[in-house]
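task queued by scheduler; priority normal; single chain, no ligands, no partner chains; default sampling; output format set to C-alpha coordinates
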Amino acid sequence: MPTIDIRHTHGLDPAQARQAVQHIADTLAQRFGVQQSWQGDSLMFKRSGVDGRVHLEPGAVRVTAELGFLLGAMKGTIEDEIRRVLAERFR
Protein backbone atom coordinates (compact mmCIF):
# COMPACT_ATOMS: atom_id res chain seq x y z
CA MET A 1 0.00 0.00 0.00
CA PRO A 2 1.24 3.51 -0.73
CA THR A 3 2.07 5.49 2.42
CA ILE A 4 2.28 9.15 3.32
CA ASP A 5 4.63 10.46 6.01
CA ILE A 6 4.86 14.25 6.36
CA ARG A 7 6.35 16.19 9.28
CA HIS A 8 5.71 19.95 9.50
CA THR A 9 7.27 22.24 12.12
CA HIS A 10 5.31 25.11 13.65
CA GLY A 11 5.36 27.72 16.40
CA LEU A 12 1.94 27.08 17.96
CA ASP A 13 1.45 26.15 21.58
CA PRO A 14 -0.01 22.66 22.19
CA ALA A 15 -3.60 23.87 22.67
CA GLN A 16 -3.52 25.92 19.46
CA ALA A 17 -2.00 23.00 17.54
CA ARG A 18 -4.69 20.62 18.80
CA GLN A 19 -7.39 23.11 17.84
CA ALA A 20 -5.93 23.47 14.33
CA VAL A 21 -5.84 19.68 13.86
CA GLN A 22 -9.43 19.38 15.07
CA HIS A 23 -10.56 22.08 12.66
CA ILE A 24 -8.95 20.23 9.74
CA ALA A 25 -10.47 16.93 10.89
CA ASP A 26 -13.94 18.46 11.21
CA THR A 27 -13.68 19.80 7.65
CA LEU A 28 -12.63 16.37 6.35
CA ALA A 29 -15.49 14.72 8.22
CA GLN A 30 -18.03 17.08 6.67
CA ARG A 31 -16.64 16.92 3.14
CA PHE A 32 -15.56 13.28 2.88
CA GLY A 33 -17.14 11.34 5.73
CA VAL A 34 -13.83 10.73 7.50
CA GLN A 35 -14.23 9.13 10.93
CA GLN A 36 -11.96 10.50 13.62
CA SER A 37 -10.99 10.01 17.25
CA TRP A 38 -8.28 11.30 19.57
CA GLN A 39 -5.89 8.89 21.26
CA GLY A 40 -3.64 10.99 23.45
CA ASP A 41 -1.81 13.45 21.19
CA SER A 42 -2.82 11.61 18.01
CA LEU A 43 -5.94 12.12 15.95
CA MET A 44 -6.76 8.84 14.23
CA PHE A 45 -8.75 9.07 11.00
CA LYS A 46 -10.28 6.52 8.68
CA ARG A 47 -12.57 6.13 5.71
CA SER A 48 -12.74 3.85 2.74
CA GLY A 49 -9.34 3.99 1.03
CA VAL A 50 -7.35 5.71 3.78
CA ASP A 51 -6.26 4.95 7.34
CA GLY A 52 -3.97 7.33 9.21
CA ARG A 53 -3.14 9.66 12.04
CA VAL A 54 -2.07 13.19 12.81
CA HIS A 55 0.37 13.21 15.72
CA LEU A 56 1.19 16.35 17.68
CA GLU A 57 4.84 16.63 18.68
CA PRO A 58 6.47 19.56 20.50
CA GLY A 59 6.83 22.17 17.75
CA ALA A 60 5.70 19.87 14.94
CA VAL A 61 2.81 17.91 13.50
CA ARG A 62 3.25 14.59 11.71
CA VAL A 63 0.74 13.12 9.28
CA THR A 64 0.99 9.44 8.39
CA ALA A 65 -1.46 7.46 6.30
CA GLU A 66 -1.83 4.28 4.30
CA LEU A 67 -3.70 4.73 1.05
CA GLY A 68 -5.80 2.11 -0.68
CA PHE A 69 -5.38 1.20 -4.33
CA LEU A 70 -7.52 3.98 -5.83
CA LEU A 71 -6.22 6.79 -3.63
CA GLY A 72 -2.68 5.47 -4.04
CA ALA A 73 -2.79 6.57 -7.66
CA MET A 74 -3.32 10.15 -6.39
CA LYS A 75 -0.60 10.04 -3.71
CA GLY A 76 1.36 13.03 -5.07
CA THR A 77 -1.73 15.23 -5.28
CA ILE A 78 -2.83 14.21 -1.79
CA GLU A 79 0.63 14.94 -0.33
CA ASP A 80 0.69 18.37 -2.02
CA GLU A 81 -2.71 19.23 -0.52
CA ILE A 82 -1.66 18.06 2.96
CA ARG A 83 1.47 20.22 2.78
CA ARG A 84 -0.59 23.21 1.61
CA VAL A 85 -3.09 22.87 4.47
CA LEU A 86 -0.34 22.37 7.07
CA ALA A 87 1.51 25.46 5.84
CA GLU A 88 -1.73 27.45 6.03
CA ARG A 89 -2.83 26.28 9.49
CA PHE A 90 0.53 25.73 11.22
CA ARG A 91 2.79 28.79 10.98
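post-processing summary
- The helical segments are 14-32, 69-72, 75-89.
- The chain has a mean pLDDT of 95.
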